[in-house]
Amino acid sequence: MLRYGLQIGVAGAGAAAIGLASGFDHPGWACTAALLVSRPDEGALHARSVGRAASVLLGALVACGLGALDPPSGVVAGLAAAALAGVCATVGSRWYVMPFFSTTIVLSMLVARGDEGTGHWFAERVGETLVGIVLALAAAWVASRLAPRRHAAPSS
User: What is its main location (predicted)?
Assistant: First the structure.
């Protein structure tokens, strides 16, 4: 657990520092990604990293693609409602699809607000997610070098 504590602490702190220092509109997105993909098991870490990256990318494509068409508010609300239904329907899934739905909801609302262009929100959400994932992977690598796993002594 010491190794995992070191791993998740470095990933979360590094992502928070980058998010805050860079001036992102939503500096917590990188930190959230780093903390949600971090796992003590290397296989689970890699699977969640790929799953989160793909899910966020696809959700951002859907929300920003629709937003680029400048649809009426009812269409945006319908997309958000469908994504919310998707979250509810897949909550017990072993596939890591919830980030697709949450990204679709969040970005569809941000794009509809019209403060920034779709490209801005796409780049920020996907970019920060990738920063968080890279930091989680790097922190796991560092933690494995600083605090190697101890194997139980064979019993006689």
Answer: membrane
